[in-house]
Amino acid sequence: MKEQLQKDFDSSIKNLSLSQKDIEIKKFCLENFIEKGFPNRKEEDWKFSDLNQIIKNNIGELSFYNNQASTNKVDTSVFVDGLEHNKIVFINGRIEKIDFEYEKKDQIEIIDQSETINQFKNSNSLSDLNNAFTNKCFKILVKKGYQLAKPLIIYHTTNSKIWSKNINLRLNFELDKDSSLRLIDLFNDTSEKNFLNIFYNFELKENAVLKNYKVDKFENKNVKYSFNNIDQDKNSISETFILSSGSNFSKNEINCNLNGVYASAFVNGIFSLNNDKHHEIRSIINHLTENTKSYQLIKSVLDQSSKAVYQGKIFVNSDAQKTDGYQLSKAILLNKESEFNAKPELEIYADDVKCSHGSASGSLNEDSIFYLMSRGLSYQQSRELLINGFLLDVVEKITDSEIKNLIKNMIGIKE
Amino acid sequence: MDNRQKEINNLKDYKYGFSTDIENIQAPKGLNEDVIKFISNIKKEPSWMLDFRLKAFERFKVLKEPDWQKPKFPKIDYQDLYYYSAPKSMKDKPKSLDELDPKLLETYKKLGIPLQEQARLNGIAVDAVFDSVSVATTFKDELTKQGIIFCPISEAIQNHPELVKKYLGSVIPTSDHFFATLNSAVFTDGSFVYIPEGVRCPMELSTYFRINASNTGQFERTLIIADKGSYVSYLEGCTAPMRDENQLHAANVELIALDDAEIKYSTVQNWYPGDKDGKGGIYNFVTKRGLCKGKNSKISWTQVETGSAITWKYPSCILKGDNSVGEFYSIAITNNHQKADTGTKMIHLGKNTKSKIISKGISAGSSDMTYRGLVDISSKAKNSTNYTQCDSLLMGNKCGAHTVPYIKNKNSESNIAHEATTSKISEEQLHYCQQRGLNPEEAVGLIVNGFCKEVLQQLPMEFAVEAQKLVGISLEGSVG
After folding, report:
1. Residue A240 falls inside a structural domain
2. CA distance B380 to chain A (A)
3. Is residue B425 in some structural domain?
4. B390, B404, B422, B424: which to substitute to probe chain A, counting the most A Cβ within 10 Å?
5. Over the stretch A88-116, which tens digit does the pLDDT of each residue have?
6. Does residue B264 fall inside a structural domain?
7. What pLDDT, on a 0 to 100 scale, did the predictor assign at position B111?
8. A230 with A378, same domain?
9. B379–chain A nearest CA distance, Å
10. Of A241, A237, A230, which is closest to residue A120 (Cα–Cα)?
11. pLDDT in tens, A153-168
């Protein structure tokens, strides 16, 4: 892999107009990655999902160079109907379209940051990989007091032109004071066996509101890793919803730093898995100052030999008195072969806090099925109804009604 | 006010801080094959036992000290420790309590366990371990009548080799982790218990461990076997004299429960925790593991951990037999600069297995406490259930409380429920108690005892009283 990395790195550097210093940084990151390789189960954070092994089994040999000289045709059929929205379109990792047609042009700034490389404070080797190979990076700045009229949908599309490739993406967002953004990430893959490595960085200033919905629903054979870093200032709110379902492997990581007083973070997720899919959500909420709040709810329905992992951590600094932290994960195992692993973690250094977590896993309640069947439903119907209700709970947590309905329709959950 | 302050200061100083001057027989310093042979030789062990030790030592040489735990400690130089030390006057073993070295008896008196009195009054058979050799074993006769074997493990190796050979290392193999393997290589003494088929042990079996000679690591090995349909309750209590250097304690405890057998293992651990600035104290790195080998067997761990500079242990249950039950009740209290990383592992292998975990952690001062646990339900463990509850209480803003549970469910017909909370003592509760005339310390003591009640009531009567007092003493000076 080392030679492949080196070769692909040289080809990708050639096409970029970078300063010597930036090339040095990229080279440094590459060397870091070569040294560490893909994360494996020896690392605590990857204990339940050995990415090195997963890539070996699902993809085999990866190549890292993306020739992005030619444009891809944007397939408009994937666009969401019935909801007016702004768009960013990625096709095979190349950014094809940025369109804020519904917004005031002077309130949103799109800054090309391809030439400044800001390193992530994430210690795992995938951030090094991302740093080394990302060749386009934009920052989207929402100006003071501006609230986007329509949601922004980022389409992550891949097509059959690529295979066994590693795609690295990066986006930065800054939400200035009193601004707000609703963001939907929609994955749409017709490609097979690629590894997507996505890094987002969000900076929320005072009173800013971010709502991020990640929807990975369509069946595909790709391996995905997505990392969200969210820094929150005073009174800001972040809401993250993850629907984890389509890909062969997917790991979503949320790292949230509550830096300002009264900041709050919400992370809600659904795993709906079948076949031998293996998905993970890992969240780290850092309560760094007083009076911050976090709430997490993760529910899983696992069929066949699928496997879901939830690792959630609430960290409370010694200054963060009056913290309110809550975490709950529930799983229904439908099949003998399915597996649910959880590691809900609390690390607390302040005494005046209210932190709790809960985790439960088991089968569908036979008594409830019996109850429904005695009212005339078939076994299958009762099962579906129970699962529907189980998952509806999470979807109901979405605070934006427009998007809530959209997501309900997408995953076929009835009220 | 002055008097009161003095009183508190007196209480805060470690009650059991003294050491007895007895000439010791020591193995040469350091760890090598010769030292292991020395230990084996002095204990007149058969050759299979020496092989067991040497095999473990071979394995130990390739192992590395683990470093994933939360409390970090300065590197231990394993070549700078004495691996064997025995009071000299023990060379010719005394036949009765009256023949004991008066100085030894004095030590126990200060500890609050005068052997003669306690043996007669409490109805407990006491197998007191002073450093490495068992000093006295009482009530032996009564137990022998029932066919129960309760003796130092070195004696068991001599007298019951077939049992020891069969079970020693069957739960904690010589190829286990670093500290367990070290113990397998150099263990000096400990208790051996065998309860024959269908016998219900008529009394609580109890051992007081005592660490005395400085620079001596204690490597106990306890092996308890409960044959079909038997029952035993075993108590382990520990206190250690004050020392400035850190001392290592790496014991191994193996429990084996056959069909329909039940073992209850209770610990009150009150070793020297170091002084107010975190100097000195015991490193308590113990491997405790129980195997529910037979059907319908049950193993229950209860622990009250108030001592030691660092406590690092996970009493575990391997639920192999169908319908077997594992329980873990724990109170861990850390104060000043104490650190604890403790919890349990429940490994469900058989059908219809059940486990229950109740863990209460209290941290005060600048201490740090971690609950780390594993619940693993394998794909064959149909219809298994686990319930886990871990609550932490924080006192002051310099301490930490952490919860790190690992939950693995591979069976769709099994249920796991886990909940954890972290909070502090509420002002309302304190106010209410004070209003009724309690001073703040008494109020905290009352509330904490209530917080721990679920676990305390699992302890046998004799221990429950002592444990309750310990809870109070450990937290003294942490409020206000």
Report:
1. yes
2. 9
3. no
4. B422
5. 998 888 888 888 989 888 899 888 876 66
6. yes
7. 52
8. no
9. 7
10. A230
11. 999 988 888 888 888 8
Which residues of chain A make contact with B398, given a CB cutoff of 8 A? 318
**B394 vs A contacts (CB less than 8 Å):** 348, 350-351, 353
Q: Which residues lie closer than 8 Å to B164 by C-beta, 6 or more apart? A: B153, B156, B157, B192, B223
Enclosing domain of residue A372: 365-415
Q: What angle do CA A291, A293, A299 make, to 5 degrees?
A: 170
Q: Do B407 and A337 touch (CB under 8 A)?
A: no
Nearest Cα to Cα of residue B190 among B159, B241, B154, B144? B154
Q: Which residues of B touch A333 (CB under 8 A)?
A: 409, 411-412
Among residues of chain B, what percentage have pLDDT more than 70? 76
Is A67's Cβ below 8 Å from some Cβ in B? no
When CB atoms are compared, the residue of B401, B418, B422 closest to A359 is B418
A344 and B403: CB-CB below 8 Å?
yes
Q: Report the pLDDT value the prediction gives residue A226, as an integer from 0 to 100.
A: 93
In a domain, A178, yes or no: yes
Q: Which amino acid would we find at residue A290?
A: E
- Is B175 within a domain? yes
For A321, nearest residue in chain B (alpha carbons): B397
Q: Is the Cβ pair B400, A348 closer than 8 Å?
A: yes
Cα B245 to Cα A73, B11, B174, B282, B321, distances in angstroms: 73, 22, 29, 8, 44
CB contact under 8 A, B406 and A359: no
For chain B, the domain total comes to 1
Which positions in chain B touch A345 (Cβ < 8 Å)?
402-405
Angle of helix A2-14 relative to helix A20-36, nearest 10 degrees, comes to 160
Structural domain that includes position B125: 2-313
**CB atoms < 10 A from the CB of B436, how many?**
9
The domain boundary, picked from A260, A277, A307, lies at: A260
Binding-site residues on chain B for chain A (CB distance < 8 A): 68, 379, 392, 394-424
Indicate the residue type of A323: T
Residues from chain B that touch A338, judged by Cβ atoms under 8 A, are 412
Residues A16 and A144 in one domain: yes
B348 assigned to some structural domain: no
Using a CB-CB cut-off of 8 Å, the residues of chain A touching B428 are none
Point out the residue among B398, B409, B422 whose CB comes nearest to the CB of A339: B409
**Number of structural domains, chain A?**
2
Residue of B nearest to A326 (CA): B421
Q: For residue A189, what are its two tokens?
A: 């893959």
Q: Write out the two tokens for A38.
A: 């893909």
Can you say whether the dihedral through the CA atoms of B45, B49, B51, B57 is positive or negative?
A: negative
Cα–Cα distance, B395 to B366 (Å, whole number):
10
> Do residues A388 and A255 share a domain?
no
Measured CA to CA, the distance from residue A355 to residue A353 in angstroms comes to 6
* Residue pointed to by tokens 């306890």: B222
Q: pLDDT digit string (tens) for B330-351?
A: 999 888 889 999 999 999 999 9
Contact A348 B422 (CB under 8 A): yes
B396 → closest Cβ in A335, A344, A351: A351
End position of a domain, from candidates A216, A231, A260: A260
**Residue numbers in A near B410 (CB within 8 A):** 339
**Residue A367 burial (10 A CB sphere; 0-12, 13-18, 19+):** exposed
The answer to whether residues A21 and A161 belong to one domain is yes
Both A256 and A369 in a single domain?
no
Same-domain status, A207 and A67: yes
pLDDT digits (tens, 9 = 90+) for B351-368: 999 999 999 999 888 899
Q: Is residue A273 situated within a structural domain?
A: no
Contacts of A152 (CB under 8 A, 6+ apart): A85, A86, A87, A88, A100, A181, A182, A183, A184
A305/A302 Cα distance (integer angstroms): 8
Q: State whether residue A348 sits within 8 Å of chain B by CB.
A: yes
Kindly state whether residue A64 falls inside one of the protein's structural domains. Answer: yes
